[in-house]
Amino acid sequence: MIKVAVCDDENKQRETIVHIVNKALELTNEHYKIVPFTNGEQLMFSALDFDIYFLDIQMNKLTGIEVAKKIRLVNEKSIIIFITGYKDYVFDAFDVSAFHYILKPIDEEKLKNILYRALLQLEKKDKFIVAKTISHSTKIFLKDIMYLESEQRKLKVHTIYDIIEYYHKLSDIEQELRESHFFRCHKSYIVNLSYVQSFDNTFITLKNSEKIYISKYRLNNFSKAFMYYLKDEAQ
């Protein structure tokens, strides 16, 4: 089930957002629940386990930015979409990894399109691979993989919480990942573009400061792939 929170202290605006989101989700095959909140404090007393948050920024007491910061303390992967009448907070929105920033008055078609893109993003987060060994199988979500490393006949999957090893070919896993934001940057490495912080002619630096090799023969294509990824994320 897709759980959506709508937080706005203006009744008319909140009802409008709920109406548009409900109308859009009715056209999908998703099971969903929309919960309206009249202020940030009310939302803070909820479980904070929503998949998508629509937040007004200018609210009494807690602002939408403050609410988003509290959400991020317990939920790093949820999608936060700001809806506001002010342009001044766009850089604050980046600080909490907002998915989008919509200016009022609300354009219904734009809100629907952003919501559908958010649903696609959630769908990507649920994709996984299965690491099979003789004794057991491990389900690994793609969103948790920072990079994959080939060492002799073993595949090392470096995730945000552990390193999982099993016998598998890097070329085969590359095929499994071809529709996702992964790039084979070296004969021994495949990197998840969402964890890339920066790169130079020799190394890719990840957001956790780890460095992995990049082949000079793949550098140009990697640069293009990463730019396309950033452009896609910014839309």
Automatic annotation (TrEMBL):
Pfam families, sorted: LytTR (PF04397), Response_reg (PF00072)
PROSITE patterns named in the record: HTH_LYTTR (PS50930), RESPONSE_REGULATORY (PS50110)
Transmembrane segments: none
InterPro entries: CheY-like_superfamily, LytR-like, LytTR_DNA-bd_dom, Sig_transdc_resp-reg_receiver
Location of the HTH LytTR-type domain: 129-228
Keyword Oxidoreductase found: no
Domain Response regulatory residue range list: 3-119
Keyword tags: Phosphoprotein
Coiled-coil boundaries: none
Annotated SMART domains: LytTR (SM00850), REC (SM00448)
MF (Gene Ontology): DNA binding; phosphorelay response regulator activity
Modified residues (4-aspartylphosphate): D56
Function: May play the central regulatory role in sporulation. It may be an element of the effector pathway responsible for the activation of sporulation genes in response to nutritional stress. Spo0A may act in concert with spo0H (a sigma factor) to control the expression of some genes that are critical to the sporulation process.
Protein name in the entry: Stage 0 sporulation protein A homolog
Organism: Clostridium aciditolerans
